[in-house]
User: Fold this.
Amino acid sequence: MLDDSIWKSGSVTSRYLEVMRDSRPFIKDQIEIMLRLIRDLGLPVQRFIDLGCGDGVLASVIWEQYPDATGVLVDHSPPMLQAAREKFQGSSVPIHVCDMDYGQPGWVEAVAQYSPVDLIVSGHSIHHQPDSRKQEIYAEIFTLLQAGGMFINVEHVASRTERLERLWEEIRVDALHNFGLQHGLNKSRMEVQSEFRQWPDREANRFALVETQCDWLREIGYVDVDCYFKYFEFAVFGGCRPLR
Assistant:
């Protein structure tokens, strides 16, 4: 399976939410950096979009800071959206769940009624798109932001060399192995590495260098563009729509 429709699989979704996501190195730091960037905007977040929301993990931490903000959660994976609905069931947060594939341009019209928004975030999702589509998505996001609004991408990016990619795999397998030991999975490191290399979404990954993606954002017109955090293939980057 060569596209991101793999994420419509319940077993893949469960495995990701239960193991792959929470075993990521420095995940708490990445989220804290996202929140610091949001707080530094100096404006109350009234409307935001979580693009490729999964179970709404980024939206949940935004709502902790801005409980009155209207959030639009966009994803095309039924299991992920169901997990998001369950996460916020009984909550009073203003939530709109949008079952849309943002890999197709029509997603913009589906959320336009909520725009302009103060903030758009995405977590480990856009890397499934081809580079040409990534650039289009960044431009589409720009049109949905209000002046001064920000786009923050908590993302998986490409290694610059094969040596660094190999080292990253070692780091990632170590993290998965340690996570498994802490949760009583009792798998050898070799078993974990074998499973990691056979993880079903690997063929759907289309990583791009973070430097290249920051250049795309600048070309579109974003300001304050930077990579705010990077640890090998995990990065937090983005930029703002200018005030004028």
